[in-house]
Amino acid sequence: MSNVQVLPLVEPEAAVAPCCPPLTERPFSAEEAEVAARMFKALGDPVRLRLFSAVASHEGGEACVCDISDVGVSQPTVSHHLKKLKDAGLLTSERRGTWVYYRVEPSVLKAMGLLLTTAAGT
User: Higher confidence at residue 98 or residue 113?
Assistant: First the structure.
């Protein structure tokens, strides 16, 4: 009997549901500001930004915690920062055996990019 687990495919060009309109389109609502602030606050820490970058740039768009934990802090601190990134909606995770694999939440990078574009798309 095989222990192979089939994972669902994530469409690379899935429809993006940005959290907020581009900054130049209109002022944010209170809810939009909360969502955007939570994402950017999570990325405002250099260790979290390095971890997020390591996951986002990892081959296949996902990384085992064992492959991204060399960021100059202890393992419990890495776990704390990964939890903050998950809580902000920037990462998802899946436990496989004894390891946890992280991936950037589908369309997060694109949605964050849209947030920072001008209404004219420049």
Answer: 98
